[in-house]
């Protein structure tokens, strides 16, 4: 039933591209207290449409340093997702604290515009208000845009201007039954492994290192 109500606007014959802002989507799912099963997520959209491409965007620590999300990135790369990554930029504050900055907005915008002539519908999984102009540009090219995020937490995880601009808004909470991971006691381990990743709205601090995204 959740599938019929939340995704009924996606037509079976539509060519669809999925754009996942990895850090932003992770924060939205964490706010709703569930973890995403990306195999299930891919199957949901592939079953609802002619899925052309599924992009996943994230910034990573330098290859010489351990990156807690590297196992996920590798799995996605081998299982149907097009991975777009770049190194985090490192800064050292006067206090000696290390900051790692990562932002994938430009990569998402450029590739969305590149694929626009070849799709009918783009699903953007992000609540970042910076994407409002991108959504408007895609719409001018005749592409329908669905934005997936959530308004359940307070404050909401999606910018109001992005939600208003989208053709359709789907609350991530309505997809939980379709895409959530089934856990066997490993939730805390996964949470710890992801707490060091950059995100759009929060600063996650671990020891003397801080990760953030402008």
Describe this structure in words.
With 214 residues, the chain is of the alpha/beta class. The protein has one domain (2-212): 5'-nuclease (Rossmann fold, 3-Layer(aba) Sandwich), CATH 3.40.50.1010. 35% of the residues lie in helices and 25% in strands. It has nine helices and ten strands. It has helices at residues 2-7, 22-31, 38-48, 70-78, 105-115, 132-140, 160-165, 176-179, 187-194; strands spanning 15-21, 50-60, 82-87, 89-92, 98-101, 121-125, 144-149, 168-171, 204-206, 209-212. The protein has a six-stranded parallel β-sheet, sandwiched between helices. A four-stranded mixed β-sheet has the order 4-5-10-9, with no helix packed on it. Strand 6, helix 6 and strand 7 (144-149) form a beta-alpha-beta unit. The longest helix has 11 residues, at 38-48. The chain starts with a helix and ends with a strand.
Give the strand line-up of the largest sheet: 3-2-1-6-7-8
- Encode the helix/strand succession as letters: HEHHEHEEEHEHEHEHHEE
State the CATH architecture: 3-Layer(aba) Sandwich
How many domains comprise the coordinates? 1
Number of helices: 9
Question: Brief description of this entry?
Answer:
Helix content is 35%, strand content 25%. It has 214 residues and is α/β, with parallel strands linked by helices.
């Amino acid at each position: 039933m959740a599938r019929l109500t939340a995704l009924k606007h996606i037509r079976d014959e539509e060519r669809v591209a999925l754009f996942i802002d990895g850090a932003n989507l992770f924060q939205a799912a964490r706010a709703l207290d569930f973890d995403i099963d990306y195999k299930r997520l891919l199957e949901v959209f592939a079953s609802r449409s002619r899925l052309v491409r599924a992009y996943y965007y994230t910034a990573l620590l330098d290859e010489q340093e351990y990156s807690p999300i590297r196992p996920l990135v590798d799995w996605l790369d081998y299982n149907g997702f097009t991975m777009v990554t770049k190194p985090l930029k490192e800064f050292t504050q006067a206090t000696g604290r290390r900051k790692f900055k990562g932002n994938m907005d430009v990569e998402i915008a450029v590739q969305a515009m590149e694929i626009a002539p070849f799709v009918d519908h783009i699903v953007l999984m992000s609540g970042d208000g910076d994407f409002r102009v991108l959504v408007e540009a895609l719409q001018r090219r005749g592409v329908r845009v669905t934005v997936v995020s959530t308004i359940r937490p307070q404050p909401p995880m999606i910018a109001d201007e992005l939600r208003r601009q989208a053709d359709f808004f789907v609350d991530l909470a309505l997809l939980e039954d379709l895409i959530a991971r089934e856990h066997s006691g490993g939730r805390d381990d996964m949470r710890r492994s992801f707490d060091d990743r950059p995100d759009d709205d929060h600063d996650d601090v671990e020891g003397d290192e801080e990760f953030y995204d402008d």
